[in-house]
Automatic annotation (TrEMBL):
InterPro entries per the UniProt record, alphabetical: Leu-rich_rpt, LRR_dom_sf, NACHT_NTPase, NLRP_innate_immun_reg, P-loop_NTPase
Protein name: Si:ch73-233m11.2
Species name: Labrus bergylta
UniProt xrefs under PROSITE patterns: NACHT
Residue ranges constituting the NACHT domain according to the UniProt record: 69-202
Length: 894
């Protein structure tokens, strides 16, 4: 039809606006309420200069100028497809775009469905569409490239579009089935060259359409903002309403649909006008909507109930059979006979004046809500909640609505209109919910935990949360990759509980600002927060920081989260006033710059930080030297510092040593693993060990590029009266025989405090093992744990230690002789040592050359020695023949 016809005929609004159906598209457009929509990037080239998503109308216009002039607008229920089509046609008629088309034909499949007899395209255009002059038709048909067809609601099309199952037609005057006409048009056999814009929800028909698909994104946040401002005349009220919607509903996909926004705005407006409370959950919103709709109908309580029951039956039918619409016979079977005049607010009625009207729910969400409601009323519904849910598996919100409606405070407003809910049904739902939640929460499936939290959130009952989430709930599992609505539900549950042992978000790939904001109250109520291997936006870190600063959290694990210096700065602001004791920021891509922020935290006077793990951050000597300033502050409470692989050298060891003996440092444990501090670094630290004010108890020099030269300094330090070191780790350093013998000298001095010694892979010899044996039997040694694996001393070397273990003076509890070239020849000594020792609990024998022959004796001695907690025999030369025997003792690992 031409532009004038469009302007005079088509653009007269048909029908009326309804709360669930939306404001009529033409009213929206005519009243300047149209908010331009966006599409996703995939279909169009790129974002525009401001980095925003492309506009929907541009995407359509661009696609129509392409080679295949078919554009499919795809979007969910109420996302604005019809409105966008009407705007497109109106703008064309007003000369704003698409002026290359001389005629535009606009069809709705819902209406076409009624044509059940063969028709030619000419007849459809002339008589059915009825708005084209007979004379102009040939012109149109001769120039198909000047014609645009606009088809709406393709998903409602009840016939086939498959070109392979029907013979397509090409003659506009030939009568054919509707299915053939539409398929022939879209496949180009009829009116070849014409252009098409087709709007649809996601449907299987899309596979028959060539051309461009354009996603209709509906209202994202900025469009919602514009819409609310347009809806409410007072900007303050608009803002209040929007904030409320964003906080309570903004995380549901449905809130991106313009139709839902209309429903929400209209409902909020009437509640605000009545000075009533706005709904806190989606269930409460639907209670309010239903109350509003029922009140509008002004029926008696009996009629209200009948209507709700009939709607519930229809909802169940549509949900089970995946029907979107029902005919008159079906409606009668649901019990609508007397009530059909009242269904308009709930149902869209097509072909009202024809003999075959079709009824469709205006809102899928309301369909599910009515289904849930009927569970508490309809005697014909399955009796148990479990079977209702089983029967309507495809319903997304059913369990959430059931949960909300089973709470007295939430169902009360409806009870006054439709009568009392069946108490047996309420009880049934409650007992199903409690027992299934108890099972779910004992298990480890995070999705199921989340669902349970959603149901609790909908129920809005503190006491129910406390009843369901008990100590037996397994809440320590990782709730990674939460959606925004998961965050809201989890936060609700933790807030009701009042505190949480551990909030585990391990492996969350995208903790956005919005999600962290929703979780912030839960974070402050959690004693331990695990955010290891997560990626957090700066905004998220900001919320974490503020949650920590007012919260209960004592342990925070951010390891492997690659925070970087900037985000650490943001975090530091919250650390000062937090209760944090233990901060793990290993592998966080930090540099020297972060140390300044950490210093300001540690010296703040309010920080409680005792343990700081900085493993694998390139802070370097300059960074550690800054931290050392903090260690000398009377405010710093740090006791343990993990400095593994921090690119440290001897340069920073002097400063560390000075800090340790400053008299202010509380430091008990320093781990310097994997740094190149070398012998000179050890020498510097040994000075502090001899200082009376140094409180250090544990030093770890694992793989620190040391040689025997450092041992004289260690010996001196260990022999000093002031030394309080109980743990010394020197594993993976080339100390050699000479160096190790010096250490043994120190260890044999009465009073030497060392209890745990690590000398794995230190190039030790049999002579060293002999001296270590003497240390152990000396009667003065406090050694409880000795790790001397990966030194090739063989059976003879290890025998010195085994004999020592058998000696009554030896206090050893743990001996590690991994990969020391042991053979079956040592087994007798092993068994003798175990039998004689009163203290030994663990023996590490992995990576040796023991064979099957040793197994019976080793199993026997383990069975006879209940003191022994573990013997590890992994990676020896056993055959499968002995596995059964080894299996007999569960304290043997093999
Ligand atoms: N761009 C818009 N600006 C303002 N309001 C809009 C816009 N788009 C849609 N609406 C409102 O949302 C309602 C629903 O939109 P519309 O009917 O266009 O959705 P739809 O995607 O065609 O839905 P369905 O899949 O159910 O056919 C409209 O009646 C109108 O009130």
């Amino acid at each position: 039809m031409d532009k004038d016809t469009v302007l005079t005929h088509i653009l007269k609004p048909k029908g009326m606006s309804t709360l669930l159906g939306g404001e009529l598209p033409l009213n929206v457009i005519n009243n300047n309420g149209y908010i331009p929509l966006l599409t996703s990037e995939a279909q169009t080239a790129e974002r525009n200069v401001e980095g925003n998503l492309p506009s929907l109308s541009n995407a359509i216009l661009t696609a129509l100028s392409g080679k295949v002039k078919t554009v499919s607008l795809v979007g969910p229920e109420g996302s604005g497809k019809t409105t966008a089509l009407q705007k497109l046609v109106l703008d064309w008629a007003q000369g704003q775009h698409l002026q290359n088309f001389t005629a535009v034909f606009h069809f709705q499949f819902r209406e076409l469905n009624n044509m059940n007899w063969p028709l030619s395209l000419e007849t459809v255009l002339l008589h059915h569409h009825g708005l084209i002059e007979h004379d102009s038709l040939p012109l149109v048909l001769q120039n198909p490239q000047d014609v645009l067809f606009v088809f709406d609601d393709l998903d409602d099309f009840k016939q086939s579009l498959d070109p392979t199952t029907q013979t397509l037609c090409s003659d506009p005057s030939q009568a054919a089935s509707l299915s053939c006409l539409v398929a022939s048009l879209l496949h180009g056999s009829l009116l070849k060259g014409a252009a098409f814009v087709v709007a649809t929800r996601t449907t299987g028909f899309l596979r028959f359409l060539d051309g461009t698909q354009v996603e209709v994104l509906g209202f994202l946040k900025p469009q919602r903002e514009a819409y609310f401002q347009g809806f409410f005349t007072d900007p303050g009220v608009a803002n209040k309403a929007l904030q409320h919607m964003e906080r309570t509903l903004g995380f549901y996909d449905v809130s991106a649909t313009p139709r839902f926004c209309w429903t929400v705005c209209s409902t909020y407006k009437s509640l605000m006008d009545a000075a009533a409370k706005l709904p806190e959950t989606i269930s409460q919103l639907y209670v309010d909507i239903l109350v509003n709709l029922i009140q509008m109908l002004s029926l008696s309580q009996n009629y209200n109930k009948e209507l709700v029951l009939a709607l519930g039956r229809m909802a169940s039918h549509c949900s089970v059979d995946q029907h979107s619409s029902c005919n008159k016979e079906e409606m009668d079977a649901f019990g609508f006979q007397q009530l059909l005049n009242s269904v308009g607010v709930f149902l869209q009625v097509d072909g009202e004046r024809s003999s075959r009207p079709v009824f469709t729910f205006r809102s899928q969400m309301m369909q599910e809500f009515l289904l849930a409601l009927s569970f508490f009323f309809d005697k014909s519904m399955p009796k148990s909640a479990e079977s209702v849910l089983e029967k309507h598996k495809g319903a997304n919100f059913l369990d959430m609505f059931l949960s909300a409606l089973s709470e007295p405070t939430q169902c009360r407003p409806l009870e006054t209109l439709i009568g009392r809910f069946d108490p047996d049904q309420i009880m049934d739902f409650k007992s199903w919910f409690k027992s299934s939640s108890a099972m779910t929460l004992k298990g480890c499936y995070r999705d199921k935990h989340q669902r349970c939290f959603h149901l609790l959130h909908q129920a809005q009952s503190d006491s129910l949360v406390k009843e369901i989430v008990t100590d037996s709930a397994h809440l320590g599992i990782s709730y990674r990759d939460l959606s925004l609505q998961d965050c809201v539900a989890l936060n609700y549950v933790i807030t009701c509980l009042g505190e949480m042992k551990q909030l585990n978000l391990y492996l969350t790939r995208n903790l956005t600002e919005e999600k962290a904001e929703r979780l912030a109250p839960a974070m402050s109520l959690s004693h331990n927060i695990n955010l290891s291997d997560c990626s957090l936006s700066t905004g998220a870190v900001l919320h974490l920081a503020s949650a920590l600063s007012r919260g209960l959290t004592t342990d925070l694990n951010l390891s492997n989260s690659h925070l970087g210096d900037e985000k650490l700065k943001v975090l530091s602001a919250g650390l000062r006033d937090s209760k944090l004791h233990n901060l793990n920021i290993q592998v966080c891509s930090l540099t020297e710059a972060s140390c300044e922020d950490l210093v300001s935290v540690l010296t703040s006077g309010t920080s409680q930080l005792c343990v700081l793990n900085l493993r694998w951050n390139a802070i370097g000597d300059q960074g550690l030297m800054k931290l050392c300033k903090a260690l000398q502050s009377p405010h710093c409470k740090l006791q343990q510092l993990v400095l593994q692989a921090n690119e440290l050298t001897v340069t920073s060891m002097e400063a560390l040593s000075a800090a340790l003996c400053s008299g202010q440092s509380e430091m008990r444990k320093v781990d310097l693993t994997n740094n190149t501090i070398g012998d000179a670094g050890v020498e510097a630290l040994c000075k502090s060990l001899q200082h009376p004010l140094c409180k250090l108890q544990s030093l770890n020099f694992f793989d620190s590029q040391l040689t025997g030269a450092c041992c004289s300094h260690l010996m001196e330090a260990l022999m000093s009266e002031n030394c309080s070191l109980t743990e010394l780790e020197l594993t993976v350093n080339d100390l050699g025989q000479e160096g190790a013998l010096l250490l043994c000298k120190a260890l044999s001095k009465p009073g030497c405090p060392i209890e745990t010694l690590g000398l794995k892979r230190c190039e030790l010899t049999e002579l060293v093992f002999k001296d270590l044996g003497s240390v152990l039997t000396s009667g003065t040694s406090k050694l409880k744990s000795l790790v001397v694996g990966i030194n090739k001393v063989g059976d003879r070397g290890v025998k010195h230690l085994l004999d020592a273990v058998a000696h009554p003076n030896c206090l050893l509890e743990e001996l590690d002789v991994e990969m020391t070239d042991l053979t079956d020849a040592c087994v007798e000594d092993v068994c003798a040592a175990i039998r004689a020792s009163k203290t030994l609990k663990s023996l590490e024998l992995r990576n040796n050359s023991l064979t099957d022959a040793s197994v019976p004796a080793l199993v026997q001695v383990m069975q006879d020695s209940p003191n022994m907690l573990e013997m590890c025999l992994k990676y020896n030369d056993f055959s499968e023949d002995v596995f059964d025997m080894l299996e007999e003792c569960n304290r043997i690992r093999y």
